[in-house]
Amino acid sequence: MSKNEQQYLDLCRYILEEGRRKEDRTGTGTISIFGYQMRFDLQEGFPLLTTKRIPFRLIVSELLWFLKGDTNLRYLLQHNNHIWDEWGFQKWVESAEYNGPDMTDFGIRSQQDEEFNKVYQEQLAIYQEKVLQDDDFAQKFGDLGNVYGKQWRSWEGADGEVYDQIQYIIDEIKRNPDSRRLLCNAWSASEIKNQQLPPCHYAFQFYVANGKLSCMFNMRSNDVFLGLPFNIASYALLTHLIAHECGLEVGELIYTGADVHIYSNHIEQVEKQLLREPRELPSLKLNEQVKSVFDFSMNDIELVGYHPHGPIKAPVAV
């Protein structure tokens, strides 16, 4: 049994047994704990859950989107990635330019009302097509504000300068691998009002020892059932990509979460997942011909030996 996956399952059990009921911004309600850490040995295998199928290509396209410094949904939609759609859709339906059916609290209503869900899906499809085809619309309503890509690649400092935090980390690893400043921060107090969703994984730091690259990422808020499996795999992939460019092996991935929660409408799904036995972890294969983190495409990243249990669907809280 994979220790990497077992500790995630142990976290789920711990929240169900010890967590506190809390209300939240979405109105859904959670079972929550405060403060938790897990350590994943990346030499053991790529930490993608096997107790339910996780769509790895969505993780890849989202990370490449971040690394491009992009904040517009068009790139994701072009790669059939819809994990951010609801936040862009919310921006449109709450604007003065929207004149369709009432979409107030669409996230909750679409789960509770089958007829409303049909109308919601129709409007969402219209939104997606507009982002893909209409440049003006995409600029207004496809852009999510100064979210991860902007902060990672174009951080604006109080001095008026723009900083590429990812490039800095790569350069610093190559020239000074013992540095304690291999840090990227996505949380900017002055930018929160300009972000459709403030960063949940707000900072990460790298560490080089014995020819291996390790990463610790920090989360202020974490949806354990839907979000955390993506977050773990995404930062594992980022660690592999940077290690690849810097000529290093991969070491540990360390997760530190603050408000770590299971949504009240995910409990049944979590309990179902906990009945499943973990399987052997897959491995990651990168195109050796690609030298720079920023030059990777979808076709340059391959998951090998992934044989999970079937998917378990659950609604996203918006």
Automatic annotation (TrEMBL):
<dbReference type="GO" id="GO:0006231">
    <property type="term" value="P:dTMP biosynthetic process"/>
</dbReference>
<dbReference type="GO" id="GO:0032259">
    <property type="term" value="P:methylation"/>
</dbReference>
<dbReference type="InterPro" id="IPR000398">
    <property type="entry name" value="Thymidylate_synthase"/>
</dbReference>
<comment type="pathway">
    <text>Pyrimidine metabolism; dTTP biosynthesis.</text>
</comment>
<dbReference type="GO" id="GO:0006235">
    <property type="term" value="P:dTTP biosynthetic process"/>
</dbReference>
<feature type="binding site" description="in other chain">
    <location>
        <position position="25"/>
    </location>
    <ligand>
        <name>dUMP</name>
    </ligand>
</feature>
<dbReference type="InterPro" id="IPR036926">
    <property type="entry name" value="Thymidate_synth/dCMP_Mease_sf"/>
</dbReference>
<dbReference type="GO" id="GO:0004799">
    <property type="term" value="F:thymidylate synthase activity"/>
</dbReference>
<feature type="binding site" description="in other chain">
    <location>
        <position position="231"/>
    </location>
    <ligand>
        <name>dUMP</name>
    </ligand>
</feature>
<feature type="binding site">
    <location>
        <position position="223"/>
    </location>
    <ligand>
        <name>(6R)-5,10-methylene-5,6,7,8-tetrahydrofolate</name>
    </ligand>
</feature>
<comment type="subunit">
    <text>Homodimer.</text>
</comment>
<feature type="binding site">
    <location>
        <position position="317"/>
    </location>
    <ligand>
        <name>(6R)-5,10-methylene-5,6,7,8-tetrahydrofolate</name>
    </ligand>
</feature>
<keyword id="KW-0489">Methyltransferase</keyword>
<keyword id="KW-0545">Nucleotide biosynthesis</keyword>
<keyword id="KW-0808">Transferase</keyword>
<feature type="active site" description="Nucleophile">
    <location>
        <position position="200"/>
    </location>
</feature>
<dbReference type="InterPro" id="IPR045097">
    <property type="entry name" value="Thymidate_synth/dCMP_Mease"/>
</dbReference>
<feature type="binding site" description="in other chain">
    <location>
        <begin position="220"/>
        <end position="223"/>
    </location>
    <ligand>
        <name>dUMP</name>
    </ligand>
</feature>
<comment type="similarity">
    <text>Belongs to the thymidylate synthase family. Bacterial-type ThyA subfamily.</text>
</comment>
<feature type="binding site" description="in other chain">
    <location>
        <begin position="261"/>
        <end position="263"/>
    </location>
    <ligand>
        <name>dUMP</name>
    </ligand>
</feature>
<comment type="function">
    <text>Catalyzes the reductive methylation of 2'-deoxyuridine-5'-monophosphate (dUMP) to 2'-deoxythymidine-5'-monophosphate (dTMP) while utilizing 5,10-methylenetetrahydrofolate (mTHF) as the methyl donor and reductant in the reaction, yielding dihydrofolate (DHF) as a by-product. This enzymatic reaction provides an intracellular de novo source of dTMP, an essential precursor for DNA biosynthesis.</text>
</comment>
<feature type="domain" description="Thymidylate synthase/dCMP hydroxymethylase">
    <location>
        <begin position="6"/>
        <end position="318"/>
    </location>
</feature>
<keyword id="KW-0963">Cytoplasm</keyword>
<feature type="binding site">
    <location>
        <begin position="180"/>
        <end position="181"/>
    </location>
    <ligand>
        <name>dUMP</name>
    </ligand>
</feature>
<dbReference type="InterPro" id="IPR023451">
    <property type="entry name" value="Thymidate_synth/dCMP_Mease_dom"/>
</dbReference>
<protein>
    <recommendedName>
        <fullName>Thymidylate synthase</fullName>
        <ecNumber>2.1.1.45</ecNumber>
    </recommendedName>
</protein>
<dbReference type="Pfam" id="PF00303">
    <property type="entry name" value="Thymidylat_synt"/>
</dbReference>
<dbReference type="GO" id="GO:0005829">
    <property type="term" value="C:cytosol"/>
</dbReference>
